[in-house]
Every structure is written in C-alpha cells, then in structure tokens.
Write a structure and sequence with these properties.
This protein is 63% helix and 10% strand. The chain is of the alpha/beta class and 585 residues long. The strands form two sheets. It has a six-stranded mixed beta sheet with strand order 6-7-8-3-9-10, sandwiched between helices. The structure holds adenosine-5'-triphosphate and magnesium ion (MG).
C-alpha cells in the first residue's frame, strides 16, 4: 500500500512539475495570510496606546514619518485609520491573488492532464475499447482528471500550511512548559496512526464508489445510444430500473464513505479531548507544586486549542484528499494502459505503396480461448481486385481489420510491398487505405465535412466529384441545404443507404492505393448498386481492392475470390465469373 502511494505521489509530482513555480507562488500567497492576520489589531493598538494613551510611537512608524511627531498628533490617528483600510486592502489583494493564481494553475493543469488522457485513449487499441466500453474512459477524463487540481491546490497547500502552523504552536507551548507540551503532543502518534488507517479505508471506498458511479453512467450512455431499440421493444421501464439499481449501489457506497469519515472525526475529537484532560490533570499538579503559575496554565490551555486545530485540520485534509487520490489513481491507470498495437522503434516511413499484399499463415483470436482466423495464406499482386465472401460470422471483417492493423495477428505475418506491417509507421500505414466500414459512421457535422473527413483541405469540386462517383450527389442536392445539411449524431438524420453512399464518397476522396470495402452496397437497392459499381470500376483501376459482399453478383468484376468458412480460407479462385456462375447454378 505504501509503495502504491509512493508511486502515485511520484506520478503526481511528475505531472505537476511544469507548474512548480506557480504552485510556489500560491503557497507564498497563502502564507501571507498569517502575518496579515497578525497586523489586523495593530491600528487599534496604535489608537489606544499612542493616541489615547501617551506611549511613544513604535519605531517602524517613526521611520515612516518625515519628521519626529508627538504621539498625540492627529497624524498618528490618521495613520491608524489609513492602516485599517490598507490592511483590509492587502487582505483582499492576497485573497484575490491566490484565488486567481490558484484557478489559473489548477485549470491549466487539468486541461493538460485531460489532453494527455484523451491523446492516450485515442492511441489505445480497439481491443481495449471493445472490452472497457466508452463510458469508463469518458468518466476518467471528465470526472477523475480534475482531481489533480484538488490535490495540489486545495489539498497539499493547506496541508503544508497546517503543518507549519502546528510546528510554530508546538514550539511556543514547548517554551512555556515542556512537560505539558510533551503530554499534549503525546496524542499525535495516535492521530497519525488513525489517519493512516482511515486514509487507506477511505481510498478503497472511494475507488469502489467511483467504479459504481461510472458503471451507472454507462447505462445512460448505452440507452441513449440505442434509444431506437429501447423504444421499439418498449423497454424504457426496464432500463429505468437498471439505472436506479446501479445508482442505488453507488449511493450505498457513498453512505459508507460518509460513515467512515464521521467516525474518524469522532475518534479524532475524542483523542484530543483525552490530550486536553491529561494536560489539565498535569497542569493543576504543576500549579499546586509551584512549577507553573496559574496564569501560565491558562495560557498553555488556550495554546493547546491552537495546537490542536492545525492537527485536526491535517487529519481532515488527509482523509478528505482520499477522494481525489482515488480519482487520480483511476486517471493514471488509464494512462498506464498500453496499446496492443504498438509502433516499433525503427519504423519505415512510406508515402505510397504499390499494394502487394501477402498473408503468411495468419491466425487471430480476439480472446485467447476462441480462435477466429486459422492459418490464412494468400498473395495479392498490386492492382488486384479481391472479392471476399463467406457465411456471416466467418471472419471476413476480422481479416481486413488485421490488414489495417486495427488488431495484430496472434500468429503469422502480413506483408505489404515486401515489408511486415509492423515495420511501417502506423500513421503512414493507415494512410494507404481508404476504408468503407460495414456500419458507416458519420460525424454530427455537414455532409460536405463528412465527405472531406480524410482530406480536410479538399476543394468543393473534389467533394462533389467524389459524391458523384458514390452516386450520392443527386440525393444530396435534393436536400434543402444540399452539402451543408447537418447529418445529426452518427448521421442519424439520413437513411442507411444515404449514410453508406456518403462513407463511400469519403473513401473515394481519400485516393489511397488500397481500397477496403466491407459490404459497400448492402443498404442500397439494385439499381443504385449497379450505378455505384459502375462508378467504382473507374476507381478500382490501378488500386488493390478488397471487397466483401454476400451477393455474389456484386463480386463479378473481381480478379480473385476468397471464400472464408469458419475462420479458414477454403478456396482462392482466379476464374471468378466462372466460379460465381457455377455456384449460382
Ligand atoms: P458478417 O458477414 O456478419 O459481417 P464477418 O465474416 O465479417 O461476418 P467478423 O465480424 O469477422 O465476421 O466476426 C468473426 C467472429 O469474430 C464472430 O464470431 C464474432 O463473434 C467475433 N468477433 C467479431 N468482432 C469481435 C470483437 N470485437 N471482439 C470479440 N469477438 C469478435
Ligand atoms: Mg463483417
């Protein structure tokens, strides 16, 4: 546990290092509040002692004033009045400065941390996202990352201030009567142990509460993402129950945290009461035996309260910080996840490949227990049109996922232009493919921007040409806002066929050497399919194309046909049209 804490603090330190000057500034500003508080009664003292009374004015005023002034001079009263305002102003300035610098530093740190988490999440492999879901990562970026601000600005700085105050007070008490001070401080080891024990317990409970809260949030996200299905099957009430059930669990976790926290405060207060009682007991004995005067006893007693306040604050700070530490731990955990698909050190840059692809005895499993692809080997020369067919669930999409390195094969290798895929720079490799996914995904922006997703600098002319090739131009211009039509979240305001044609146009615009089409015409009617296939003929020229289709007629123009069955490549045919005719007969 201690090692784990040490690691967490080290990570926090590393994360906040660029801001240590800011943090030191905030710290100094907050330390200013102590002398300012001591200055507060000064004007009153001057008024009473020097203006009403006739004591000589203090030395520092003497140096401030141009000439020697008699104590009862109205100027001294004026100075006292000005001091009241000046001290109030300084106080406000101190508060304003530390709030401003605190907010600025905190927000900058959070933004930087969030950006780092987001960058990392985007780099994590699909298998991570497949298994963890999106809400967990969202929660960690949105709700856990800000903990870093709390820990540094609202946690550590007040903690250190409290430690300083405690040390100062301990010193003063020590000077008055060291034996009493030792008795008073005797409770601090107990408090230290208590704080340690409760911190660990609270951290554990907070982590559990956070996990539960994040899983409750995932119900919302899942339901809203599939709201059509929920409505269609009339499952609203069921989902409502599921939501309440998840949140109830997190509420119980939070109640347990509150209980532990109040119990801790209770134990701390009792421990301190015992300390005070012991001082009282010993103090009276000391007074009776003449070691201590009665006045000193009263003084020590009042200092004791002052001594225990920072001690109590330290305990509260440490336990209160556990929530943020639990969050920080969750956020750092996300950063420590390593992507499965990693870029090697000595990668090769490439601008445009010719498109020769070899699968060499490739096997793959999403999870180790269930092999999906088994010993697949085939070779494709540049410019070949490869058709892939097979029963649903056979592994066709998976095969192409390996080619784009969404996943890495568990065995065997894939060679592109004579080089293993793993030896290419990942960004360069992905740049070689224009992909139409089985389920077209659009972003909630305009149609034009969706088509230009792969090439944001594309001209309007290029966008329209790509839309024409995908047989989408006609329907786009018939929409009231044409290319500027907003497609809604995930493109939900368009029909399935329209979405598919826009994602085709997007692939056409990319102009990559390898074209990957996963059932590109599954959602359009036969006539539209024929028109798209005709436009695609031109596009497929001089490009290696992989096209998955269930309708064999779609694959008629292919040079090579791969048939996948149950994860195995069962046939590779070069005489495609003859083979298709045979199987249709
Ligand atoms: P279809 O014609 O229906 O699109 P397909 O041939 O493209 O089918 P794949 O999507 O490659 O099939 O899936 C092959 C197998 O892999 C299926 O049995 C499926 O259950 C499994 N599978 C697919 N994606 C994942 C994933 N992300 N995690 C775990 N298993 C998966
Ligand atoms: Mg598929």
């Amino acid at each position: 546990m201690v090692v784990r804490d040490f690691r967490l603090y080290r990570k926090l330190l590393r994360q906040t290092r660029p801001y240590w000057l800011h943090i030191a500034g905030i710290f100094l500003l907050s330390m200013l509040s102590m002398p300012l508080a001591l200055l507060m009664p000064l004007p009153l003292k001057i008024a009473v002692d020097n203006v009403i009374g006739s004591q000589p004015i203090p030395g520092f005023l003497d140096t401030l004033l141009p000439t020697a002034i008699a104590p009862s001079d109205p100027a001294v009263l004026a100075i006292a009045a000005v001091l009241v305002v000046a001290i109030a102003l300084l106080n406000q300035l101190q508060g304003f400065g530390s709030l401003l610098l605190g907010t600025f530093t905190g927000e900058k740190m959070v933004l930087e941390f969030r950006a780092q988490l987001f960058r990392h999440v985007q780099r994590l492999s699909l298998s991570y996202h497949d298994s963890k879901g999106t809400t967990d990562s969202t929660y960690r970026i949105q709700y856990d990352a800000p903990a870093i601000q709390w820990i540094v600005i609202n946690g550590f700085i007040p903690l250190i201030t409290s430690v300083f105050t405690f040390v100062g007070m301990a010193y003063v008490t020590m000077r008055l009567d060291w034996q009493l001070a030792v008795v008073a401080l005797g409770v601090s080891p107990i408090l230290f142990v208590l704080t340690q024990v409760y911190s660990q317990r609270l951290r554990h409970q907070w982590t559990e509460a956070k996990n539960l809260e994040s899983s409750a949030l995932s119900v919302v996200q899942e339901v809203l993402g599939a709201i059509r299905v929920v409505k269609a099957f009339g499952r609203e009430a069921h989902e409502q129950d599921r939501f309440i059930d998840h949140y109830s669990k997190s509420i119980w976790a939070l109640i347990r945290v509150s209980l532990a926290q109040s119990f801790f405060s209770c134990v701390v207060a009792l421990t301190m009461a015992i300390g005070t009682a012991a001082v009282l007991f010993m103090g009276v004995k000391h007074v009776q035996s003449g070691i201590l005067s009665l006045g000193d006893l009263l003084l020590v007693n009042s200092y004791l309260t002052q001594l225990y306040i920072p001690l109590m604050n330290i305990g509260d700070q440490v336990t209160g910080m556990q929530r943020s530490l639990a969050s920080a731990e969750r956020a750092f955990y996300l950063l420590s996840e390593t992507p499965d698909v990693i870029e090697c050190k000595h990668t090769k840059s490439v601008s445009r490949v010719s498109g020769a692809v070899t699968f060499d005895n490739v096997s793959f499993a999403y999870d180790k227990a269930h092999p999906i692809l088994r010993h697949i080997s085939f070779e494709v020369t540049p410019g070949t049109r490869v058709g892939i067919t097979g029963r649903t669930g056979a592994g066709k999409t998976t095969l192409l996922n390996l080619l784009t390195r969404f996943y890495d094969p568990s065995d065997g290798q894939i060679i592109l232009d004579g080089i293993n895929l793993r030896d290419y720079k990942l960004a360069d490799l992905r740049n070689q493919f224009a992909i139409v996914l089985q389920e077209p995904v659009l972003f909630s922006t305009s149609i034009a921007e969706n088509i230009a997703y792969a090439r944001p600098d594309a001209s309007e002319h290029d966008i329209i040409a790509a839309a024409k090739a995908a047989n989408a131009h006609e329907f786009i211009v018939s929409l009231p806002q044409g290319y500027e039509t907003q497609v809604g979240e995930r493109g939900m305001r368009l029909s399935g066929g329209q979405r598919q044609r826009i994602s085709l146009a997007r692939a056409f615009l990319k102009d990559a050497p390898i074209l990957i089409l996963d059932e590109p015409t599954s959602s359009v009617d036969n006539k539209t399919e024929a028109a798209i296939m005709e436009a695609m003929e031109r596009l497929m020229n001089n490009r290696t194309t992989f096209m998955i289709a269930h309708r064999l007629s779609t694959l008629e123009s292919c040079d090579k046909l791969l048939v996948i069955e149950n994860g195995r490549l069962v046939s590779v045919t070069s005489e495609v049209s003859a083979a298709i005719k045979d199987s249709l007969l």
